[in-house]
Amino acid sequence: MRARSRVALSLAVVAATTGLATPAASAGGDVAVAATCGFYKTVDAQYYNHCGPTNVRIHVDIVFASDGVWCVAPGVTRLGPKPTVRDAWYVGLC
User: Fold this and answer.
1) Cα(39)–Cα(25) distance, rounded to whole angstroms?
2) Residue 83, class by beta-carbon neighbours within 10 Å (0-12 exposed, 13-18 middle, 19+ buried)?
3) CA-wise closest residue to 49 among 13, 71, 77
4) Structural domains in the chain?
5) Fewer C-beta within 10 Å: the chain N or C terminus?
6) The pLDDT of residue 79 is above 90
């Protein structure tokens, strides 16, 4: 298991067991997915859920194209439809 996947899983477990809500959860999203901080996939798309209070830069690993670095706000950001994005991870503040 990759390090950022372990961190995201650990944060999801903490959020789920402490009853923390995320923007996706309050918007009616799937509770198991909404508890995930960082990169996650649904049936038809990929997302990055930033659980912190500031805007951050993420590296987006794009399939069949050049990777990108995006600035995202707190909450859920849709990265694209499946299977266009392979992964995404935090790289710093923006």
Assistant:
1) 15
2) exposed
3) 77
4) 3-93 (2.60.40)
5) N
6) yes
Radius of gyration of the chain (CA): 13
Q: What is the DSSP string of 5-66?
A: HHHHHHHHHHHHHHT---HHHHTT--HHHHT--EEEE-SSEEEEEE-SSS-EEEEEEETTS-
Write the DSSP assignment of 54-75 as a string of letters: S-EEEEEEETTS--EEEEE-SE
Predicted pLDDT of residue 28 = 44
pTM of whole model > 0.70? Answer: no
Asked whether residue 75 carries a pLDDT value surpassing 50, the answer given is: yes
The pLDDT score that the predictor gives to residue 36 is 84
Question: Distance between CA 72 and CA 27 in Å, rounded?
Answer: 18
C-beta separation of 47 from 71 below 8 A: no
